[in-house]
Design a protein that fits this description.
It contains 27 helices and 17 strands. By secondary structure, it is of the alpha+beta class. It is flat, with a radius of gyration of 53 Å.
């Protein structure tokens, strides 16, 4: 439906905005009013309807239980029961007793529970007697054959037959229907028992009236037939479920939270998104009637109105979009024709500048024409701004030797509008920029780019002759100087001007002057020669200039590598803990380099060799450093650009690698180890274990132990063990093998050999001599 180039979004939005203001906003207001007023009325009516339903349900259930309570009180208040309690302990042959039993059975059969009762019986506390409407018998026999229960449920039921009870509802229990005197189960029923004691106001009642309610019928009775109610329940204030029906299945804690958070007569939505309605019972003060509400069904009329409102808004929105599209397309047709004509004649004479106006189709066409002109100018400015970047990239490739043919260089230069005389005297000056270590981490990449751009601008302004500038590396700027016969200005004069420009607090600069060449295709030779001059740079902070006249090779005069004797000297000073002398030796080497005017490459080679030797010495005793740490030390050294930075680098590295041991801390650790040796001399005491504990190598720990204790580690262990062995020889009757094992020797022979070595006699002779 939408052809390529046949639609204008600006016109579409203009029409759609008008439609939105005149039609869509009133529609939105009307729908909002409908939703927040009419829908709210429907929701309130639905909530009131639910409250009426719950109140009727609560009143009906209260009447049922109140009627049952009245019947139970009437039965317990009958004179027959009072008379029977007086003769309950008489012989079963007592005629009056038997008549009273049968009258009680008839009264039990007449209890009205609204169709909920399954059975009822009287449970006598002080007599082995249970009476229901069918029989009377002993308690054990009754609950085994007439009312059989599981042992756990029977025990739970009997626990209620104590203290005063008034309409106590028990937990549900299952009664199994069996033929008399058999164990065959025919069916089972879930019951809830209701208990009432007599006399009413005593804590030591004589009889309990128990009415068994069929739980299935009770669930049917408390069920609400309204389609928005998915479940009902009767709860007490503690959250215990008396009975429940439907899909409501929550634990006691959840019910308790709902009762505390809910208000009677209002809908409460819990964390699971379930709507709950709560109504207090008039039958018992601590009872609540709870129903689970399906909000989707209850609020269905409100939901339909909301959906219709949104559908209506969507319809109006789509209709407005289609109308706006149709009108904008019809209006855009003449504009499209003019646009096509302008595109086919884009090389025509440039019209006057465009000024944005509003009006009829002709004004729109003028705007479109002005837009094309504006875009053309913007493109021209963009291309013009890219020329310096492209030309600098072109010059970089020439200096790197990628373009060496004169014809290809001329062709590429013409493509990027880079005019140059093919025959001219030119010299390449390489400027190496090395940022000081103190500012390198503080300068971002953007800041360094701005510094380089500022440097290029200053060079172009200060140079009296034409120069070409290009950055061949991140730290290297190439400056091509043109020598003019009419001006006595050459590469040395250019280098002197650069020297004044490059005095900066951020970096150290070194200038290398290359050979002078006559053609542009030979510039890579001049660049390579200037790059080679930079290898003679030193470590002074001022700007250095190197050319074939002042460059010299000092490698023969100053060795850049450590000799074997110097390496051994470093290891010996490390072993003797002469750490200050290690740093002083480096300072002396650097002072010698300053006197001999050593190059930065020579000094860096020598310093790398020294740092490598330091690391090898440290690794013999310390293992907490890793390869990334050592690599970082070399990177830090490589960043140094002056003598002072190298001194600071070695001073910081020396502080990291050669930590002076604290005597007090070391003595404290050794004291703990000595105490452990005395207490566990019978165990394996490897020197590697204690060396690792103190963060040392085994050799370093052995030397430290002898320095602090005065004895070698092995001899000290042997003396501690022998001291304990002599005490066991004199104070106990243990065998030699047992003593050897107690003091940490695995065999009798090794123990005897060590004992003879230090005491001059065998353990057996030592015992016989010193026990006399």
């Amino acid at each position: 439906m939408i052809k390529q180039g046949s639609f204008n979004m600006a016109l579409f939005w203009r029409f759609f905005t008008s439609y939105f203001i005149l039609i869509l906003i009133p529609a939105i207001v009307a729908c909002t009013f409908t939703y927040f007023f009419i829908v709210r009325l429907i929701e309130d009516d639905a909530e009131k309807l639910n409250n009426v339903t719950m109140r009727n349900f609560a009143d009906q259930t209260d009447r049922t239980f109140s009627s049952l309570k009245t019947n139970m009180i009437n039965l317990l208040s009958t004179p027959n029961l009072v008379s029977f309690l007086q003769v309950a302990g008489d012989s079963p042959d007592n005629q009056q007793r038997n008549e009273l039993v049968h009258s009680l059975m008839e009264q039990l059969n007449k209890i009205d529970s609204g169709g909920l009762m399954y059975s009822a019986y009287l449970f006598f506390v002080h007599e082995d007697l249970v009476i229901d409407f069918q029989t009377y018998t002993g308690k054990e026999f009754y609950f085994q054959h007439y009312y059989p229960l599981e042992p756990a449920e029977k025990s739970a039921l009997f626990s209620y037959f104590s203290d005063k009870q008034m309409m106590l509802f028990t937990e549900p229990h299952t009664m199994y229907q069996k033929p008399l005197f058999t164990n065959q189960v025919l069916s089972s029923y879930s019951h809830i028992s209701v208990l009432m004691s007599y006399p009413f106001n005593t804590r030591s009642p004589e009889v309990y009236l128990v009415v068994n309610l069929n739980e299935d019928k009770l669930r049917e009775h408390i069920g609400i037939t309204e389609r928005w109610v998915t479940g009902t329940a009767i709860l007490d204030s503690s959250g215990r479920v008396i009975s429940q029906t439907g899909s409501m299945r929550l634990d006691a804690d959840s019910w308790s939270d709902i009762l505390q958070a809910s208000q009677e007569g209002s809908l409460f939505v819990n964390e699971d998104g379930q709507a709950v309605s709560v109504m207090r019972s008039h039958f018992k003060d601590d009872w609540y009637y709870v129903s689970l509400i399906d909000l989707q069904t209850l609020l269905q009329p409100a939901r339909w109105i909301s959906r219709v409102s949104f559908v209506f808004l969507g319809f109006v929105l789509v209709l407005g979009s289609l109308v706006s599209y149709y009108l904008s397309r019809r209006l855009y047709t003449p504009i499209l024709e003019i646009k096509t004509g302008l595109e086919s004649h884009h090389k025509a004479a440039e019209p006057k500048p465009w000024f944005p106006v509003k009006g009829n189709d002709l004004d729109v066409i003028k705007q479109f024409s002005g837009l094309l002109i504006s875009e053309n100018k913007e493109l021209s400015r963009l291309v013009g701004g890219m020329f310096p970047i492209v030309q600098e990239h072109f010059m970089t490739k020439i200096l790197l030797g990628e373009y060496r043919d004169g014809l290809s260089i001329e062709y590429y230069a013409r493509e990027i509008d880079f005019p140059y005389p093919s025959q001219a005297v030119r010299t390449v000056l390489c400027i190496e920029i090395q940022y000081y270590a103190s500012v390198l981490d503080q300068l971002s990449e953007t800041s360094r780019s701005f510094l380089m751009a500022e440097l290029k601008e200053n060079i172009r302004k200060r140079m009296p002759v034409a120069v070409w500038l290009c950055q061949t590396r991140a730290d290297l700027l190439a400056c091509v100087v043109h020598s003019e016969p009419a001006k006595p200005f050459g590469p040395k004069e250019a280098a002197q001007i650069l020297q004044t420009i490059l005095v900066q607090p951020y970096y150290k600069a070194t200038i290398g002057i290359g050979k002078t060449v006559d053609t542009i295709e030979e510039l890579h030779i001049s660049y390579a020669h200037a790059l080679a001059m930079l290898r003679y740079k030193g470590l002074r902070s001022e700007v250095e200039i190197y050319s074939p006249d002042n460059a010299r090779d000092d490698r023969a005069a100053w060795d850049s590598f450590l000799s074997v004797q110097e390496v051994n000297k470093i290891f010996n000073r490390f072993k003797t803990r002469d750490y200050p002398e290690l740093l002083q030796a480096v300072y002396e080497l650097l002072e010698e380099g300053v006197r001999k005017n050593a190059t930065a490459f020579q000094v860096k080679y020598l310093c790398s060799d020294v740092l490598n030797t330091w690391i090898r010495a440290v690794e013999t005793e310390r293992n907490e450093f890793g390869i990334p740490f050592y690599s970082g030390l070399f990177v830090k050294l490589d960043r140094c650009v002056t003598w002072e930075e190298i001194r600071d680098c070695f001073r910081e590295t020396h502080a990291l690698l050669f930590l002076a041991e604290k005597p007090d801390a070391r003595r404290g650790q050794l004291a703990e180890i000595l105490e452990y040796i005395h207490e566990h001399c019978g165990e394996e005491l490897s020197i590697e274990r204690f060396a690792e504990r103190m963060g040392m190598s085994a050799g370093h720990f052995s030397r430290t132990f002898k320095e602090e204790v005065g004895e070698k580690y092995v001899e000290y262990i042997a003396k501690v063990r022998l001291a304990k062995a002599k005490r066991l020889l004199l104070e106990t009757d243990m065998k030699i093998d047992e003593i050897a094992e107690q003091v940490g020797y695995w065999g009798r022979n090794s123990f005897i050999r060590i004992f003879r070595r230090y005491e001059g006699t065998t353990p057996a002779k030592y015992r016989s001599i010193h026990r006399k």
